[in-house]
Amino acid sequence: MDIIITCKEKITPKHTGKHAPYEYVKYEITERNRDNQCYVCLYEIPPGKAGYPYHYHTANTEVFYIISGTGVVETPDGTKDIAAGNVIVCPPNAKGAHKIINTSDTQVLTYLDCDTANSPDVVFYPTSGKIGALVSDEGNMFFEESSKVDYYKGE
């Protein structure tokens, strides 16, 4: 991989808005694959929206730098206000659970997201009871925790 010097105007954005409370515009700076140890993106979250559901990773640290706008980050210790200049570091465990929400009625919340890129990564979604298996170059799979089976089932 070569050194990357870029800006959002040079990147084709990806827009996701399939679910009412969640929407974002993502500018992917590095690709998520086995060759990268760090995954870097710019995100723009519209007013009143969140980028992702409340979750935590077991193999990756996530770091967010708030560039502009205001919002809150939900954590295991409650909701905390965030604004331009804040840095949020979410460790890879239940204490690092988080959800970033834009609380503004008019301003876009923009942040830089820098994550370690260890694969595979297991992601827990405490609110919905889901588990995600994120595997670079192979796709993501999501399951409900209630579908747990015994280790030897079917063997």
Topology:
Elements: E1 14-19, E2 22-28, E3 38-45, E4 56-57, E5 62-68, E6 70-75, E7 78-83, E8 87-90, E9 99-102, E10 109-116, E11 121-125, E12 130-135, E13 139-144
Antiparallel strand pairs: 1-2, 2-3, 3-10, 4-11, 5-8, 5-10, 6-7, 6-9, 11-12, 12-13
Shape: globular
Q: What is the first-to-last residue Cα distance? A: 43 Å
Structural class: mainly beta
Instruction: List the secondary-structure elements in sequence, H or E.
Output: EEEEEEEEEEEEE
Per CATH, the class of the domain at 14-120 reads Mainly Beta
Mean model confidence by pLDDT = 94
Instruction: Specify Rg, calculated over alpha carbons.
Output: 16 Å
Descriptive notes:
- Strand 1 (14-19) and strand 2 form a beta hairpin.
- This protein has a domain at 14-120: Jelly Rolls.
- The strands form 3 sheets. It has a 6-stranded antiparallel sheet with strand order 1-2-3-10-5-8, with no helix packed on it.
- It is 0% helix and 48% strand.
- The chain has no helices and 13 strands.
- It has 155 residues and is mainly beta.
Would you summarize the structure shown here?
With 155 residues, the protein is mostly beta strands. Helices cover 0% and strands 48% of the residues.
Task: Supply the key terms.
mainly beta, Jelly Rolls, single chain, six-stranded antiparallel β-sheet, globular, 155 residues
